[in-house]
Design goal:
- The structure is a single chain.
- This protein is an all-beta fold and 297 residues long.
- The chain contains two helices and 26 strands.
- It has a single domain, classed as Beta-galactosidase, Chain A, domain 5.
- The strands form six sheets. Strands 10-11-12-13-26-22-21-16-19 form a nine-stranded antiparallel β-sheet, with no helix packed on it. Strands 5-15-24-23-20-17-18 form a seven-stranded antiparallel β-sheet. It has a four-stranded antiparallel β-sheet with strand order 1-2-3-4, with no helix packed on it.
- It holds the Pfam family Aldose_epim.
- This is Aldose 1-epimerase.
Length: 297
């Protein structure tokens, strides 16, 4: 067990536990249902922290999902990042494994900040995560700033683990999907219906997905019929990819709003639809994700 410092946010309708030093994570998020029950909107993490569990919610920076062998070329330079998970590829960038600091705090809101000076990822940058509890929703605003003197390839997003019940559904409008190999790396782009099916509403317990959908309109709806509750997700541009992870038989799943495809930095050498962004020196990129719970009739 690892003890980490926690901080909290609480309003009449929401309760959050935050772990700034552990990747700027939301460790738990509860919402008070109109009938008085407190429900977990995010699968809560163990406290003290019990290793690399699939729980909580963390920001993804400077890229999401997997980067093949941790290597890519940009502007004539080969960049090699050290492996950060047991698999052969580097996953989720590095922000989720670095300490963040509390940059500001007020009633129902907190701003977490991560400063990157440059290492194996040679581009210095800063990113802030503003977490706000509004009367009807949780809003997370991500703002990245290129603090270097050269252009920087970039991508970001949010990685929430949601509770999964036998009747949980996920509804979203997506156009295409990246089929993947045995290492969960993209092989070809196809129609979303090839993996999602023909109906917009996916039954989570009947799916086995770990892939990125493209052409997402930024809206998704989760429903937990047994709990009498649902959750609307709204993501601003450039978060137009949705990574869906539904491990069979698990009590959790992921619907991750992100800005680009898996391995976008390598795929971008031959295609222009990966979502990879290049930030000029001094340029800022911002987005916001809202999670709005509601009671089911």
């Amino acid at each position: 067990m690892t003890r980490v410092d926690t901080t909290g946010l609480e309003t009449e309708r929401f309760r959050l536990t935050l772990l700034p030093e552990l990747g700027g994570r939301i460790a738990a998020c509860q919402w008070r249902h109109p009938d008085g029950r407190w429900l977990d909107l995010i699968r809560p993490m163990s406290l003290p922290y019990d290793g690399d569990e699939e729980a909580g919610c963390f920001p993804l920076t400077p890229f999401s999902n997997r980067l093949r062998d941790g290597r890519f070329n940009f502007a004539g330079r080969e960049i090699q990042m050290p492996r950060n998970t047991p698999g052969p590829h580097v996953e989720h960038g590095h922000g989720w494994q670095r300490p963040w600091t509390v940059a500001a705090r007020g009633p129902g809101q907190i701003v977490l900040r991560y400063e990157h000076a440059g290492d194996a990822w040679p581009f210095p940058y800063a990113i802030e995560q503003a977490i706000e509890l509004l009367p009807d929703r949780l809003r997370v605003t991500l703002t990245a700033h290129n603090r270097g003197v050269e252009p920087m390839p970039y991508g970001f997003g949010l990685h929430p683990f949601f509770p999964a019940t036998p009747e949980t559904t996920l509804e979203a409008r997506v156009e295409s999907v990246w089929h993947v190999d045995d290492e969960v790396m993209p092989t070809r782009l196809g129609l979303a219906s090839e993996l999602w099916g023909s109906a917009p509403r996916l039954v989570v317990s009947e799916a086995s997905l770990d892939t990125a959908f493209a052409g997402w309109d930024g809206a998704a709806t989760l429903r937990w019929p047994e709990l009498g509750a649902g959750l609307s997700m709204a993501a601003d541009a450039p978060l137009r990819h949705l990574v869906v992870y539904t491990p069979p038989g698990a009590s959790h799943f992921c619907a991750e709003p992100v800005s680009h495809s898996t391995d976008a930095f390598n795929l971008a050498e031959t295609r222009n639809d990966t979502g990879m962004v290049v930030l000029a020196p001094g340029e800022t990129l911002t987005t916001a994700i809202s999670l709005s719970p509601f009671a089911l009739p």
